[in-house]
Amino acid sequence: MSRRAITLAVSLGLMIGSGPRSVRAQDAGVPAQDEVADDAGAPPSDAEETDTSAVATDGDAEAPGEPEDDLEAELAAELAANAGANDDAAGAQTSTSTGGTASSRGLSNLMNPAISATGLFLAGWTRRAEPDPLALEPAPPEQGDLRTGLHVQEVELRLSSIVDAYFRADLTLTATEEGIEFEEALITTLEIPRVSLRAGQMYANLGRHNLLHTHAFPFLTAPLPWRALLGPEGLKDVGVSADVLLPLPFFAEINAQVFRGEWAPFAGEVLDDPTTPIDETIPDRRRDGDLAYLGHLKTLFDLSDSTTVELGGTYVGGRNGFGRWGNVVGGDLTLKWRPIDAERYRAFEWTTEYVWIDRPGDPLGRHRGGAYTALRYQFLQRWWAELLGSVLGVPATTEGRTWRGEALIAFVPSEFSALRLQYALEAAEEGGTRAIHEVFVQAIFSVGSHPTHAY
């Protein structure tokens, strides 16, 4: 065997053995770098010298000073570098207090979910009268959001993570001045072509606005008809959902959902009014097994490289509290424009939605409805201007219609913070109530790995 072959064999053995020895040394609490470095840089043992000499006598060894010496030096330097890299990797995984690795104690950051927190703070004044704390019934939902003074509107904590090769998990916890609740807690399937399945606590896919978290609202609160007809928090509940992307030349998606349906449109209990001689009491006839069923169709078209149009339609049905089948129908239209050559400085969005509710058995009126239309215009990189007009009472009811207009200007330094100033005017056609004026300032901050918003 030649001297070159022996040198390569010895070097290969040292390279293979350097990794395990460094790990064992770290587990024992002894620095491994010196040990490996000494092995790599030490002169050959007497046995090695004897073997080399014996081989050299065969006349196969090359003379000193030839390229063989350069090869040995290069291999020795590479071994020393590999030993140092192994020690650095082992040291990064080692705890100074116990000597064990972080992964062996389940503390690896690789398995932690993405965590974010969002805070919303309000300060302002409204002409709306304060609710009577002694009233038998609380104020209607459309009159329960903005109040004069300083308020924590909401604090949201969100955790998102890939569970495994099959599921993704999202958990959203929200805290307000009224309490703490799970806003979302669901799992979503991964890697199923054209199909997405979800299960857990989630928002119903009713149009566009009902899917938004509070910090993503275009205005400080949900539009007036949504708060009055769907409740201040919109439609969300425990359920299952399936989205199917249709094989068409344009974007088209069908969504089917099933929920428990404990929502305002399907409520049916009526309390007795003690100020009247008639007993208006109607018990809630909705059973635990009654569910709400939702179907949604969404399409998206490109009008140009900068302009898109989205159309959507929704139907929700289920047994209501009066023991009858209730219906909710919604439609939405959204136009978006963002020029490619100035997408950071210019943008325009126009959204219009309508919702109609059919409540058979309701003594106060079977049909209710409302609509809103909103404009958003980005005129500078960090500045937005917005307008919204909404109407409650389409079709008209015995209570008449209520109109509300809102104007907002927003300073958005980055995607993680915003300051927004809003003025609102609300007036009812009947009832003799005076118009309501509101002026509020909202501050929003977001920290952590916050997921992107839907298009």
Textual characterization of the structure:
The protein has 455 residues and is of the alpha+beta class. It folds into 2 domains: 3-98, no CATH class; 117-448, Porin (Beta Barrel), CATH 2.40.160.10. It is built from 5 helices and 16 strands. It has a 16-stranded antiparallel β-barrel. The N and C termini lie far apart (70 Å). The model is unreliable at 14-68, 89-99 and 138-143 (pLDDT under 50).
User: In what range is the share of β-strand residues?
Assistant: 35-45%
User: How many alpha or pi helices?
Assistant: 5
* Backbone structural class: alpha+beta
Q: Name the helix and strand elements from N-terminus to C-terminus, one letter apiece.
A: HHHHEEEEEHEEEEEEEEEEE
Tertiary shape: globular
Assign the CATH topology of the largest domain. Porin
Strand order of the largest sheet: 1-2-3-4-5-6-7-8-9-10-11-12-13-14-15-16
> Which architecture of the largest domain does the CATH hierarchy give at level 2?
Beta Barrel
What's the mean pLDDT score?
A: 80
CATH superfamily of the largest domain: Porin
Radius of gyration: 34 Å
Determine the fraction of residues in helical runs and give it as a percent range. Answer: 10-25%
Largest sheet: 16 strands, antiparallel, barrel
Care to give the gist of this entry?
The chain has about 450 residues and is of the alpha+beta class.
Spell out the blueprint of helices and strands:
Layout lengths: L2 H25 L5 H9 L4 H11 L10 H26 L21 E13 L22 E14 L4 E10 L2 E11 L5 E9 L20 H7 L5 E10 L5 E9 L32 E11 L4 E13 L5 E13 L9 E12 L8 E14 L2 E10 L9 E13 L2 E12 L7 E13 L7
Antiparallel strand pairs: 1-2, 1-16, 2-3, 3-4, 4-5, 5-6, 6-7, 7-8, 8-9, 9-10, 10-11, 11-12, 12-13, 13-14, 14-15, 15-16
